[in-house]
Amino acid sequence: MSKSVRSKKKRGLLASLGRFVAAIVLAGSALLGVLWHLARPAVPDGFYTSRHETVPPPGTLIGGEPFTRDVPEGARAWRVLYATTRGDETPAVASAIVMAATGASAAGRPVVLWAHGTTGIEPGCAPSLLKHPFDNVPALGALLKQGWVYVATDYVGLGTSGGHAYLIGEDAARAVLDSARAVRQMPGLNADGKIVVWGHSQGGNSALWAGIRAMGYAPDVNVAGVAALAPATDLRALFAAVRRTMFGKIVSAYLAEAYAKAYPDVRSGGYLGAVSTVLARDMAGRCVGGRATLFSIAEASLLPGGIFRRDPASGPLGARLDENMPNAQINAPVLIAQGAEDDLVPARIQRAYVAQRCSAGQKIDYRQFDGRDHLSLVAGGSPLEAALIAWTRDRFNGAPATPNCAR
């Protein structure tokens, strides 16, 4: 074979190889694009849009329909739409899941208001839209067996439009309390008894804020107790501690986006650089869980120092974090449960918060669970479950609480 022929064949082979590699790269890019698109939240259906031209008074039940996804056997559930208000008094609409055991119900049925942990800040991240809406809800089966009604708000801006006020206490408190008002209007449910608020993580902050604001915002809602499970309490200390951890970067993205929208002083505070602004916005556009989290983890890994170029505990952001710390009096018994191995809400920060609130006169029953982290604290089989049911039963029965601040 002549040298020129061999050269032509070699060039042809290289060209074919180049086309093959290019095709693989293009196919991979296309696949990555498809996966990226699939990782975006679902678009809420028409249920989440109120048909009212103006929002009715807060606590008004706007509508509802049966809900069946992942509902335990022996229970019936609905998703509902109700009116509430934001912290600036702007009327708003929120959605919720309501669940109760099947069968007849007596009047004055007790109600547990559930404030969920972080799922994301996009409308499609509402628990009522997720594949498994009751993930990380402790003792749900036991709650239903007690004959109690379960009411789980999605919060404003999850499911409904208008933006989610992530870790903004006043807004969350109103959404939680107005869900109690709305459920009273459901025919045949008799959900007009005492109220105990449960919440985990972000929802623990919401639950504590609901306890703080109950007397001022919703004196008709009879809050008999507040159980906060690994709550996000001292927000300034919390974000300073976890901002460089993988999940800490993701929740920092949620915080940065939500606070920038809510607070002009934070928006102009120079907390993010050019690259982290783009990545944080993209991470904030996904929900927590499944393939979406894998994309967010990949982006978070590109920011080894975290998303903030300025200390989040400083300046206007630090002041806003303090503003949303639940550090006012709650006129009901308070249970705070904490996993000793929690690396998202560290136990040392929780203990310091409890000590500070106890010194301010708040009566708290603080329980720390060895060997439990942020999620295993509320997982099935956790010792928290039996303790939570017993504590809640005592609140509904009017038994005196046993705070342990002095221990």
Description:
It is a single chain. Helix content is 40%, strand content 16%. By secondary structure, it is an alpha/beta fold. It folds into 2 domains: 46-234 and 325-397, Alpha/Beta hydrolase fold, catalytic domain (Rossmann fold), CATH 3.40.50.1820; 236-321, no CATH class. Strands 1-2-3-5-4-6-7-8-9 form a 9-stranded mixed beta sheet, with helices on both faces. Helix 4 (202-217) links the parallel strand 6 (195-200) and strand 7. Helix 6 (246-262) packs across helix 8 (274-284). The longest helix has 36 residues, at 3-38. Residues 20-38 have low confidence and may be disordered.
Report the CATH topology name of the largest domain.
Answer: Rossmann fold
Could you tell me the mean pLDDT? 91
Strand order across the largest sheet: 1-2-3-5-4-6-7-8-9
Number of strands: 9
Cα(first) to Cα(last) distance is 93 Å
Structural features:
407 residues; alpha/beta; Rossmann fold; nine-stranded mixed sheet; globular
Sequence-ordered SSE layout with sheet pairings:
Layout: H1 3-38, E1 61-67, E2 75-85, E3 91-101, E4 111-115, H2 140-145, E5 149-153, H3 169-183, E6 195-200, H4 202-217, E7 223-229, H5 235-242, H6 246-262, H7 264-267, H8 274-284, H9 290-300, H10 315-323, E8 334-339, H11 347-359, E9 364-369, H12 383-397
Parallel strand pairs: 4-5, 4-6, 6-7, 7-8, 8-9
Antiparallel strand pairs: 1-2, 2-3, 3-5
